[in-house]
Amino acid sequence: MDFHALDRRRLLRQATLLAIGATLDASPAALLAQELHALEVACAGSMRAMTEGPLKLAAAKTLSLDLRAHAQGADAVAQSIVDGSLRADVFLPITATPMMTVLRAGKAETAVPIARTEMVLVYSPKSRFAAQFEAAARGQANWWEILQQPGVRIGRSDPRADPGGRNIIFMMMLAAKKYRQPDLVQKVLGDPLNPQQVGNGQARLQTGELDAGASYRISAISSHLPFITLPADVNLSSLNLHAEHPDLHLTFGERTFYPDPLAFYAAALGDAIDRKSADAFVQWLRGSEAQSLFRENGFQPADAAVALHA
User: Fold this and answer.
1) Which CATH superfamily does the domain covering 119-257 fall into?
2) Burial group, residue 29, by CB count within 10 angstroms (0-12, 13-18, 19+)
3) Domain residue limits, the chain
4) Which letter does DSSP use for residue 266 in this model?
5) pLDDT per residue over 233-245, tens digit each?
6) Crossing angle, helix 288-296 and helix 54-63, to 10 degrees?
7) What's the angle, vertex CA 222, arms to CA 300 and CA 160, rounded to 5?
8) Which pTM does this prediction carry?
């Protein structure tokens, strides 16, 4: 037995609990005496800040759970759950598509909506186009015209593996309709898998290596990047997107994707290591404490989003 490793883990746990106690104004001694149970949470990358921050701290105090986040593009996480390469207790994706992948594979029975967000256009404060984006944020310029200027560098994720990568394309499709610009998607994004854009993330917006990208509002807030609020008929906030725009779709190989409402879902997984704690956590996410945390961090209530079933 590696007693040095045990000591290191014990010290790490004590430091974590002391930090939790200070953040939540709880008694450090009480928390150190409290046994936290690990809960493995597979989640979309856009939920990482919450599962490693506010939700983690509150779940430790209220549920005696130590949330351990496994965050990546929601489609990739869903596939890892299905093929067994990732063992988790709870799945927290954004949009219905990755959750339905898990439900149809028999890995969960029901998923409940817990929050919503919307798409915004983020830009780098170090961009040479920053003044123009600031004007667009004030309603004094057209954001979709700025994006068409030569030299604007845009970053986005892989639409085959991440809902966020698809959502920027769907967002531009809706903008093309709204502003009657039939070539807007091609002019701004190029090919859906344009190698000059795909794979370039928000970290490069912070440094000024990129000028703009599309992001969930909650991600823009947590990253402290400036952003432009988009019209409701462009920002994918509608709960009836497919019915309103049945022509919008993306096809990669044998898979066809349609725009999904930007709702976050939670499901306790059937082979959860700790199913009792998983169920308790999912129920807690729907309760007043967690919902207050979501609101404080820029999320919108789930409203009329409905539960998903296999």
Assistant:
1) Periplasmic binding protein-like II (3.40.190.10)
2) exposed
3) 35-116+263-309, 119-257
4) E
5) 999 999 889 899 9
6) 160
7) 80
8) 0.85
